[in-house]
Amino acid sequence: MPLEIIKNRQELIADSKTEEVKEIRRKILDIVESGIEAALPERVMKEKVKVIKNELSVCNRTFDLNKFQRIYVIGFGKASGVMASALEKILGDKITGGVVVVKEGFKVKTGKFEILYATHPIPSIASLEAAKKILEMAEKASKGDLIICLTSGGGSALFEYPREGVSLEELKRITELLLRSGANINEINTVRKRLSKVKGGKLARYTYPATVINLVSSDVVGNRLESIASGPLFYSENLMNPREILERYDLWKELSSHIKDVIQKEDRIDKEIFDDVWNFIILDNMVALKGAERKAMSLGFNTMILSSMITGESREVSRVMAEIAKEVEATGNPIKKPACIISGGETVVTVKGNGRGGRSQEFVLSFLKEMSNHNFIVAAVDTDGIDGNTDAAGSLADRDTMERAKKEKVDLQRFQDDNDSYHFFKMMNDLIITDQTGTNVNDLRVFVIF
Prior knowledge:
Elements: H1 9-14, H2 19-38, H3 41-48, E1 49-52, E2 55-58, E3 61-64, E4 71-76, H4 80-91, E5 97-103, E6 113-118, H5 125-140, E7 146-152, H6 155-158, H7 168-181, H8 185-194, H9 204-207, E8 211-217, H10 242-248, H11 257-263, E9 277-283, H12 285-298, E10 302-310, H13 314-331, E11 339-345, H14 359-371, E12 376-382, E13 394-398, H15 399-407, H16 412-417, H17 421-427, E14 431-432, E15 443-449
């Protein structure tokens, strides 16, 4: 049985008119929960990180702990708190000390680490204060010491220290502009790196000359280390041009001349300081998709994972998915009914309205619009439990949702035009509520054709 991750599952099931749809809703919620459960860091850390006879094994690579005088732990991101709790159980008293920053509102059980709280997706003074403490911890380590870094998505906002001459207010404004522009995470983080003293490999200046093991939970399509939490411990020579990105989204003109000068000035890093930095991706989107797949198959669905690398505008991706659903219904291609198709990745929303929502809710709203006359059910969530600027993980919809909207004279198009998917699904009682899950591996989308 999956954990009770979805807090309002009974309400979501009860909304259905028929027992058949109630049962399908129950099953799709089980599939979503199983996907999130499979990607919980504590479960994965036990599998990937082990200590055997004083040797630390990480993804089948071993490190002799006898060679290290002290072990320090630093961490940042939405999953770093759970990763820290799991690491404490693995290493115990071998840990000298540690500092980890997580998103506000998430409680972490640990006795060895100082847990700090900061904001996401916009950095705040708390993000800067957390960065100062983490850098102080990193600088304590010398040659012969080991630093274990716990990196996960969300770290770009939670762990931040601007370059000289860049104010927090300027950093916040640029981040807000980028998030509303439709830029993808790789593009956003390219700009962030140029404005930061810790991103884009620059954290390695503070950890050197210690040995560093970086345990990474990926929230980036394709698991690009240079983009996960803005790549604080990864050396990359081939970066995109931040000015070109800002011009592409018509944002360059919004910046002051001072910030333009900073963005155009590179901050080069010596490659040699990465010689003893080891990056390991221990968790990614495919882990969640495979967990969902296993559950769907056990429930009797013909199941396929479409892709873990889907990007683009949420509503455009949704239209393509709807066409696949119609093909399944009409021809049994690429999979026969009862069919469950699972996908992941990370879509974006170019915000033009004034509503509330997120990429997962926007996806479901568009799917509902395209599929209103078909036998389907669709659910999409952000695996961290927070979709966009809302308190929901995502939403769920089926043919009954559209019928309820028509009966209550709710204009779906108006909500879509205002990027207000949250309030549409709140009115329909179809928001998926999980609270913060402790993991963060992109989107999980599931639709069933029956």
